[in-house]
Every structure is written in structure tokens, then in C-alpha cells.
């Protein structure tokens, strides 16, 4: 089920947008490109050879694969020699789920995504591994109500006044003001405080 404008909607059938893609590439990179397209849930339409060394692949692909930098991956797999043309191919019934990142069992709405069910465990593990270095508590990746991956880090607590003498009032005030300014850059998720840069780094490809 999904929430929309405060209402919980029970799904019957979900659809995702598709594109008809044409990939032109040198034959020597054919294996790499076909392997890449298999990873994005493609439906192969045809393979055409021309000019002895060139190949045209035609696929039906999820539009989401374009958003996920398919063209950049094609360039990397063919050393820049591939071209990609595509057009709208309508909608196709699909098995989609909402993937959440949970920190101390609290969903982080800023990073939630709707993904295909076949990608849930792989993406969940990637999420918690990538986010682990920026968060100091416990986190989970969950699809619906099912936890698919988790990472745990020891809690960290900083006492800025621990090493100061009680009479050093000016220094104590400066440290407290500095800590207060730092907290403005943080976002609280449950009882975990996360620096906003952690979200920026997580969302960076």
C-alpha cells in the first residue's frame, strides 16, 4: 500500500513508464552492453549487424533506467563509442515496492524510493553500506514492512566541556556557542542526530 495526501491506498495493479531504446555500438563491446542491459530489466526486440563492425540493439527499457544514468554506463562500457536513442513506449504492469531507509526504526523520508521488487535487496544493502559511515546509530533498509538489510554502529557522544576547568567560563561559553552553531547543520531522525552533509553524500551518485 502507498500513502497519498494522507490517505493509505491499497494497490491492485501498478504500472511504470517504458521507453523504446536503440543502442548503436562497435561489435567488440556487444557482450558488455548486453550484460548491462540485462541488469535494467530489458525486453530485447532485435539485434542488427551492419558495416561489418557495428551493431544496433533494440530494447524496451524502464524509464527509470535512464534516470539511473544508463547513458553514462553505456559510455563507460564502450569507451565512449555507444549512442543511445529512445522514445516513449507507454506503460507496463510492474512489481513495484517502496524502499525506505530507517534510522533507529524511523523512516528517512528524504531518501525513500519506489523500486522494482527484484532490486530491493541489492539496493537495500547498498544504502545501508553507503550511509553507515555518516550515521552513528542503527539503520535498516526496509521494503514495505520487511527489513532487507541493516548496519549497526556504536553510539558516539561528545562532551565538549569535559577537559575544561570549572573556572574557565569564557572558554566554556565559546565551546558551547560553537556546538550550538554546529547543531544547526544537523537533522534529527528519531533520537539520532545526522549532519546534513550525510544526506548530500548519500544522494550523490
Describe it.
With 205 residues, the protein is an alpha+beta fold. Helices cover 28% and strands 40% of the residues. The protein has 6 helices and 13 strands. Strands 7, 8, 9, 10 and 11 form a 5-stranded antiparallel beta sheet that branches. A 4-stranded antiparallel beta sheet has the order 4-5-3-6. A hairpin with a 2-residue loop joins strand 1 and strand 2. The longest helix has 15 residues, at 169-183. Residues 103-203 form the GTP-binding protein LepA C-terminal domain. Keywords: GTP-binding, Hydrolase, Nucleotide-binding, Protein biosynthesis. Residues 14-99 form the Elongation factor EFG domain.
Q: Notable features of this structure?
A:
hydrolase activity, alpha+beta, five-stranded antiparallel sheet, four-stranded antiparallel sheet, extended, mitochondrial ribosome binding, 2 domains, Alpha-Beta Plaits, about 200 residues, about 30% helix, LepA_CTD
The average pLDDT score comes to 76
- Quantity of strands, as a count: 13
Structural class: alpha+beta
- CATH fold annotation of the largest domain: Alpha-Beta Plaits
Secondary-structure element order, as H and E? EEEHEEHHEEEEHEEHEEH
Amino acid at each position: 500500500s502507498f500513502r497519498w495526501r494522507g490517505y493509505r491506498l491499497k494497490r491492485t495493479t501498478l504500472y511504470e513508464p517504458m521507453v523504446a531504446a536503440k543502442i548503436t555500438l562497435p561489435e567488440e563491446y556487444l557482450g558488455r552492453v548486453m550484460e548491462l542491459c540485462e541488469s535494467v530489466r530489458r525486453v530485447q526486440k532485435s539485434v542488427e549487424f551492419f558495416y561489418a563492425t557495428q551493431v544496433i540493439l533494440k530494447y524496451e527499457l524502464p524509464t527509470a533506467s535512464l534516470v539511473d544514468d544508463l547513458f553514462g554506463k553505456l559510455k563507460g562500457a564502450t569507451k565512449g563509442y555507444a549512442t543511445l536513442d529512445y522514445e516513449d513506449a507507454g506503460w507496463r504492469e510492474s512489481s513495484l515496492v517502496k524502499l525506505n531507509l530507517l534510522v533507529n526504526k524511523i523512516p528517512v523520508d528524504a531518501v525513500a524510493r519506489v523500486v522494482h521488487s527484484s532490486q530491493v535487496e541489492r539496493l537495500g544493502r547498498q544504502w545501508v553500506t553507503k550511509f553507515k559511515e555518516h550515521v552513528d546509530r542503527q539503520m535498516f533498509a526496509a521494503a514495505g514492512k520487511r527489513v532487507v538489510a541493516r548496519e549497526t554502529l556504536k553510539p558516539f557522544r561528545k562532551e565538549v566541556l569535559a577537559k575544561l576547568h570549572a573556572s574557565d567560563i569564557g572558554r566554556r561559553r565559546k565551546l558551547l556557542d560553537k556546538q550550538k552553531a554546529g547543531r544547526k547543520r544537523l537533522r534529527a531522525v528519531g533520537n539520532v542526530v545526522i549532519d546534513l552533509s550525510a544526506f548530500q553524500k548519500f544522494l550523490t551518485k
